Structure formats: C-alpha cells, structure tokens
From TrEMBL:
<dbReference type="InterPro" id="IPR001005">
    <property type="entry name" value="SANT/Myb"/>
</dbReference>
<feature type="region of interest" description="Disordered">
    <location>
        <begin position="362"/>
        <end position="409"/>
    </location>
</feature>
<dbReference type="Pfam" id="PF01448">
    <property type="entry name" value="ELM2"/>
</dbReference>
<dbReference type="GO" id="GO:0000118">
    <property type="term" value="C:histone deacetylase complex"/>
</dbReference>
<feature type="region of interest" description="Disordered">
    <location>
        <begin position="138"/>
        <end position="233"/>
    </location>
</feature>
<keyword id="KW-0175">Coiled coil</keyword>
<dbReference type="GO" id="GO:0005667">
    <property type="term" value="C:transcription regulator complex"/>
</dbReference>
<dbReference type="InterPro" id="IPR049048">
    <property type="entry name" value="REST_helical"/>
</dbReference>
<feature type="compositionally biased region" description="Basic and acidic residues">
    <location>
        <begin position="175"/>
        <end position="191"/>
    </location>
</feature>
<feature type="compositionally biased region" description="Polar residues">
    <location>
        <begin position="397"/>
        <end position="409"/>
    </location>
</feature>
<feature type="compositionally biased region" description="Basic and acidic residues">
    <location>
        <begin position="362"/>
        <end position="375"/>
    </location>
</feature>
<dbReference type="GO" id="GO:0006357">
    <property type="term" value="P:regulation of transcription by RNA polymerase II"/>
</dbReference>
<feature type="domain" description="ELM2">
    <location>
        <begin position="1"/>
        <end position="84"/>
    </location>
</feature>
<feature type="coiled-coil region">
    <location>
        <begin position="255"/>
        <end position="282"/>
    </location>
</feature>
<keyword id="KW-0677">Repeat</keyword>
<feature type="domain" description="SANT">
    <location>
        <begin position="298"/>
        <end position="349"/>
    </location>
</feature>
<feature type="compositionally biased region" description="Basic residues">
    <location>
        <begin position="222"/>
        <end position="231"/>
    </location>
</feature>
Amino acid sequence: MRVGTQYQALVPDYDPEIAKVAEERDNLGMRVWIPSRNLAEAKLDEYIAITKEKHGYNMEQALGMLFWHKHNIEKSLADLPNFTPFPDEWSVEDKVLFEQGFSFHGKTFHRIQQMLPDKSIASLVRFYYSWKKTRSKTSVMDRHARKQRRERGEGEDESEETNGNTPGDVVYGPNKEEKKELGAAPEKQELKPVPVVQKPNTGVAEKLTQVKKEPQGPPGKNLHRTKKKPPKGMYLSQGDVAAMSTSTPAAVSVLRQMDMELVAIKRQIQSIKQNNSALKEKLDLGLDNFRVPEVTQKFNTRWTTEEQLLAVQAIRKYGRDFQAISDVIGNKSVVQVKNFFVNYRRRFNLDEVLQEWEAEHGMEGAAKGGEEKMDTSPSSTEDGATIPVAPEDQKEQSSPVEAQQPLAS
C-alpha cells in the first residue's frame, strides 16, 4: 500500500454544467446502489450478512438487489433465492487444464480461457491468485505422480519380501557359487559349508539344506517417502498441535490468537509506513531552509591583526596542520598559511608555540608535523603576495639582511 499525498488523486471541484453533460452521455454504467436515510445501518448490516451466508451473494450483488426493490429489505430477502449466483467451482480436471495452460501461455488469460471456455477471465484471475500461493508446494499432477511412485515402490518392497521366502532362494551344496537373482539384496552373502549328517541305521549320508537369508533392513525404510515437512518459514509447536487435537475450542482460540498477532503486526507496519512518509514530506519541504549557502571563498593576500592572532591560536591548537588552520581563518589558502608560518616565525615566536603543541600531543603529533613540514622562503610578487621557494633556491636567494628581518605581507 502506497501512503502519502503524492499517491492520492486530485479531486476537481464540482461543476454543475460538466455534471449535466456527463449525465446526458449514452455510455453511462448502470446504477447499482444509492444510500437511503430511511434505512438503518444495523438492518443493512444484518441484510448483507444474510445474503452472504445463506445465498452466497457478495456486497455488490446484495446492495444491487436491495436498490432494485427500492430499499425494501423484506422484498429483497424474498427475491434472493430466485437469483442465487452460480458457484464458482473448480474440479480437478479444471485445475489441471489451468496449470497446463499457464505453463504454455503464462499470464495470457484469454488464451487460457480457450482451454476453459466455461470460465470467465475474472474467474481465471481469481483462481490464479489463490493457486499462486500454493505453488511453493506441489501441483495436482505432481501429487498424482508422486502418489503413483509411492505405490510402485511399496509394490516392489512387497515383491521382495515374498521372493525371499520362495524355494528359488534355496542353495544346495557347499561348493556352489552364490546365485544372484532378481529382487535379491545387492550385498554379498557368504555361505557356510553344509554339514553332512550320517544316519546310524542306514549309513546313508544326507546333506542339510541351507537357506539363504536376505539382510533385513530397518523396519521404517520407506518412512522417508511419506514424511512431510512444513513449508519454509512455518514451524510447528508441540503444545499448539496437542491443544488443537484435543478440543475444537482450544484450536479456535490458538488460531484466533495468531490472527490477532498478525493483524497487530500489519497495523504496526502500516503506522511505520505512514510515519516514514510524513518524515519524507518534512524533509522535502523544510530541508532547504537549513542548508548552508555555498559561497565561493575569495582569498585575501593581506593579513589583518585579527587574522594574525587567529593564525597563532590555530597553530597552537593544530600545529603544522596547515589545512585545518586555513579552514579556521577562512579567507587564506594553505600556501598563504605556510608563508605566514615562515615570515612571522620570529615575530610571534612560533617555534615555542610548536614546542607547546608537541609537548601537549606527544611524539605522534611531532612526527606527523615533521612529515608535513615545508621549508619555504618569502619571495615578493607583483601583488604583494609571497610564494614558497625550495630549500636549494632559498640558500641562493637569501641574504643576511633577509634572514634577520623577515618581510611582512
């Protein structure tokens, strides 16, 4: 379910002229129901319940019958048996034909209707949605084929048991090899030598016959064929099953409790969706008012007294993190901050400031600052700005006067 104003239809204002023109059209639908002030809601609900339970009418059919009799409930109830709707029953043959048609044509219901001419498109669609929920199990044909295989397997087991007791399994003589017969177990069987018994009176030696015994498997070897497991996501509780099997009221109470839990969870999901939709609307409407305007920063090459003091405080806090110092000042680039560090090192005693920062942050901060260290030398440009110079060029360009008196921008 989609919740929110963006999914709601915009209802236009009522215009009598347009309504009059619409009523004069020829392709208007048939009116089925108009509410009446003289009819109580309790009687209307009772009438609808009777039509649904006794005659199988739906809401639209029941209200249409009542509107046809001008909101007279007694006449409508008397006329209900004359127009009982035809029950939409599906036989096994119809279900099999629908499954075959769906496997051939998919969701093209007008082609499936050619295989089931007595079913309407609406009936096919309704059956499709009820049939789709059970596709995770088995179809009618699958169940029939499985039943035949099970019966065939049981018949083979019975034949094995009967063949085990036939005289064809009897083996005479100690030196004969084992004979493999149909229906016998695949396991090899060892035959013990046949003892010879001599009668005392006659002196004739007789050999005892030894019957080959088949290995008896577990008594429930076919139980795995008939054993069924619940569908995925469904779990059986022994207490609930016992309660449902003992008495009908207990079973009804268990099912009713589960239905109530399901309804409560659905309501919770719906409320969460509504809250999310309301929050999204608030974000779409009021987020622009709180956004910081994006202003293109213009870097200024001149350093005011406030900016110089702010830079010193930033160096005391961030050390050699020139990017953070540039962000704090706002209108100075990273290169300008580095030039300030070189030019004003002695004036503001920045070495001691760095020592305080290193002592506060330990060796990790000192090592990090050493990696980002950049030795630069001021070099005047046309607009009064300074640019960094490599250490090799610094030795060539620097003089004792410049070393003693750093330039200020």
